């Protein structure tokens, strides 16, 4: 590898590495859409959209065709790229590469956070003349590695806590009806739960409050439409449940950390998404949200 940091995007169908290989740098594989099988040393992982695989240095690995159109990004970096970190900090950053389980599966409320980091990395990496390019890519990579480390730890801890059956029903309902005007009290009543108990249960089992969840579902869909359709921003706002374009723009920026037009420009610069792409999406960490008692 000529540089200490690289990022590459690709899409295709039935594509697989022609042979097993290994290299002296770290690799992070993120799947936007489709499915793959990924062999690392003596284990094969099933990788679906919204999942990351971590391959450490000098491990023999190979992707295997999953039989569907897939879109992915691969991030490579060397020890030199993160050599300012030492001891516990370095151990934490590289913990995902050292784990017995190398895959991180992101739910629908986490994927956009990682995807936005990846798109920002690509945007920065593609402009070789930009001041502070390497430093900015490093800060984005650190955010991704920290998130993955925490996610792996949380996943291991949460494995002993089954999803509450009522909250599972609520999530299914919200996923199908997020474009409607929903309130926490209204949904709680629909499922015969007191608003106070509903709020506590929802937060406990999802990690998000109700209003935050609905907004992120909407913005996730808006990002998908920005990637896959030629529709105008104001049209997309209405399609995902916002009657006020200013409200939509504000929520989009809170969640995606950029405006809808900035997001569309960043997606276009990646060069892999088209209007018929079957891309995946999710959502990032929370910002400020409105009262859960107001219609969203």
From TrEMBL:
<dbReference type="GO" id="GO:0043565">
    <property type="term" value="F:sequence-specific DNA binding"/>
</dbReference>
<dbReference type="GO" id="GO:0003700">
    <property type="term" value="F:DNA-binding transcription factor activity"/>
</dbReference>
<dbReference type="InterPro" id="IPR014710">
    <property type="entry name" value="RmlC-like_jellyroll"/>
</dbReference>
<keyword id="KW-0805">Transcription regulation</keyword>
<dbReference type="Pfam" id="PF12833">
    <property type="entry name" value="HTH_18"/>
</dbReference>
<dbReference type="InterPro" id="IPR003313">
    <property type="entry name" value="AraC-bd"/>
</dbReference>
<feature type="compositionally biased region" description="Low complexity">
    <location>
        <begin position="277"/>
        <end position="288"/>
    </location>
</feature>
<feature type="region of interest" description="Disordered">
    <location>
        <begin position="277"/>
        <end position="296"/>
    </location>
</feature>
<protein>
    <submittedName>
        <fullName>AraC family transcriptional regulator</fullName>
    </submittedName>
</protein>
<keyword id="KW-0238">DNA-binding</keyword>
<dbReference type="InterPro" id="IPR018060">
    <property type="entry name" value="HTH_AraC"/>
</dbReference>
<dbReference type="InterPro" id="IPR009057">
    <property type="entry name" value="Homeodomain-like_sf"/>
</dbReference>
<dbReference type="InterPro" id="IPR037923">
    <property type="entry name" value="HTH-like"/>
</dbReference>
<dbReference type="Pfam" id="PF02311">
    <property type="entry name" value="AraC_binding"/>
</dbReference>
<keyword id="KW-0804">Transcription</keyword>
């Amino acid at each position: 590898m000529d540089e200490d940091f690289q990022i590459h995007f690709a899409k295709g169908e039935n594509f697989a590495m022609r042979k097993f290989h290994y290299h002296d740098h770290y690799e992070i594989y993120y799947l936007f859409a489709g499915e793959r099988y990924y062999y690392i040393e003596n284990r094969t992982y099933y990788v679906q959209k919204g999942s990351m695989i971590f391959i450490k240095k000098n491990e023999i690995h190979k992707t295997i065709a999953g039989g569907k159109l897939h879109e992915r990004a691969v991030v490579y970096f060397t020890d030199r790229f993160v050599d300012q970190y030492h001891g516990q900090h370095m151990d934490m950053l590289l913990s995902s590469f050292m784990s017995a389980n190398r895959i991180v599966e992101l739910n629908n409320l986490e994927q956009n956070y990682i995807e936005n980091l990846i798109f920002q990395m690509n945007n920065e990496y593609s402009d070789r003349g930009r001041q502070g390019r390497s430093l900015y890519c490093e800060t984005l990579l650190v955010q991704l590695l920290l998130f993955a480390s925490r996610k792996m730890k949380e996943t291991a801890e949460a494995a002993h806590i089954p999803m509450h059956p009522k909250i599972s029903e609520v999530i299914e309902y919200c996923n199908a009806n997020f474009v409607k005007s929903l309130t926490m009290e209204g949904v709680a009543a629909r499922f015969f739960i007191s608003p106070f108990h509903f709020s506590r249960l929802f937060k406990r089992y999802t990690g998000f409050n109700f209003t935050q969840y609905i907004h992120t579902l909407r913005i996730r869909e808006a990002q998908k439409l920005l990637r896959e359709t030629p529709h105008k921003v104001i049209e997309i706002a209405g399609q995902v449940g916002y009657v006020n374009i200013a409200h939509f723009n504000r929520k989009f920026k809170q969640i995606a950390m950029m405006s809808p037009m900035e997001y569309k420009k960043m997606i276009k610069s990646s060069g892999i998404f088209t209007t018929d792409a079957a891309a995946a999406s999710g959502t990032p960490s929370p910002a400020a949200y409105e009262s859960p008692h107001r219609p969203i």
